[in-house]
Amino acid sequence: MEGESAVSQGSSSQEFPSKEFPAGTAVCLLCPQHCQLRPGQSGRCRARGNKEGAVVSLTYGEVAAMQLDPIEKKPLYHFYPGSEILSVAGYGCNLSCSFCQNYGISQARQAGDTVSPGELAKLAENSLGLCFTYSEPSVWYEMIRDTAPLVRARGGKVVLVSNGILTGAYLDELIPWIDAANIDIKGFSEEFYQKYCGGSLSWVLENVERLAGRVHLEVTTLIIPGANDDTGEIRGLARWLESLGIPVPWHLSRYFPAYRLNIPPTEPKTLQTLWQTAREHLPYVYLGNVSGGSDTFCPHCGERVIERAGYIVTNRLRNGHCSRCGTAIFGVGV
Q1: Nearest 5°: CA angle at 9, between 6 and 11?
Q2: The CATH homologous superfamily of the domain defined by 65-294
Q3: What is the domain partition of the chain in residue ranges?
Q4: Is 241 exposed, middle or buried (0-12, 13-18, 19+ CB in 10 A)?
Q5: Which of 61, 223, 241, 254 could cysteine-pair with 290, CB 3.0–4.6 Å?
Q6: C-alpha 15: how far from its chain's center?
Q7: 289 Rama sector, left if φ>0, alpha if ψ -120 to 50, beta otherwise
């Protein structure tokens, strides 16, 4: 059935050997939250629920937002820079971040327009492709699964902007259809994820490792004063990203108060300090939500090879190489 997922129910002894659930309870295995759902109940993501004993998508085809965006807005700086991509979102998220910038669609569900996978793929034809973004796309799993092959068949690219929290087996099913991903690593401690997000860092790191080398990968961290801006923590995450063995571009973004968090905005000088720390380990580090820090430099000779003024991009590369020294610049379509 279209929109229904192949998830196990609560009687499964393989995933939950020590638990027993009331009759009719279903357990959603799409993400590691493993919501236990009574008949008619939806999960914490608000996008999935128990219907007649099975976990199904409640939001299949329901569009929360859709618009044409610069690829740099995702942010993806090393994937076809200067191009535009159709961006689309469903409702819901499997985290509850107190600082969520898109809480109107991530933490709620409303009646709205619907679209089929075929219609969505056709709408994406006149751009680079289709990006699933804004809310948490993984809880819209069936729409991605059914739409991505159609986008690819029309010659488009498929992009995922995600918190990275998805059961590994489901992510493995999507990866062959994903061209690029930007994953939020919201902080580099379990304490941060538990206090501010309602999740686990380990879930995210496992999937970043799963994606590395299989799709074009970039990472974003929103820097929140007093929460995840410790220099040692940023250095630790930089070293971890370095250990992946590929030059993952890392976007450090300035926080502004949003949703339930009223901590003052990040000081630009803090971002500069953290940028310098990260650059000791990674060749491509960028600053977001602040003036400056968005240009790409050759890691060998320091030449400014891609200049960004807002979303206006000037690409000075020659066939993906530095025009001064000839060093190859990491990325796809650069």
Answers
A1: 145
A2: Aldolase class I (3.20.20.70)
A3: 1-58, 65-294
A4: buried
A5: 254
A6: 26
A7: left
User: Do residues 166 and 30 make contact, with C-beta atoms less than 8 angstroms apart?
Assistant: yes
- Kindly state the DSSP code that residue 42 receives in the 8-state scheme: B
The angle, 0 to 180 degrees and rounded to 10, between the axes of the packed helices 268-279 and 231-242 is: 40
Whether 129 and 120 have beta carbons less than 8 Å apart is answered as no
Q: Would the pLDDT of 9 be above 70? A: no
Q: Shortest CA distance to 306 belongs to which of 292, 294, 316, 293?
A: 316
Type of residue at 21 = F
The DSSP symbol for 283 reads S
- Write out pLDDT tens, residues 144-166: 999 999 999 999 999 999 999 99
| Distance (Å, whole) CA 21 – CA 12 | 10
Q: Which of 216, 163, 134 is CA-nearest to residue 31?
A: 163
Q: Secondary structure of 61-112 in the HEC alphabet?
A: CECCEEEEEEHHHCCCCCECCCCEEEEEECCCCCCCCCCCCCHHHHCCCCCC
Q: What is the pLDDT of residue 7?
A: 37
pLDDT digits (tens, 9 = 90+) for 95-128: 999 999 999 999 998 877 899 999 999 999 999 9
Closest CA to 72 of 161, 136, 147: 161
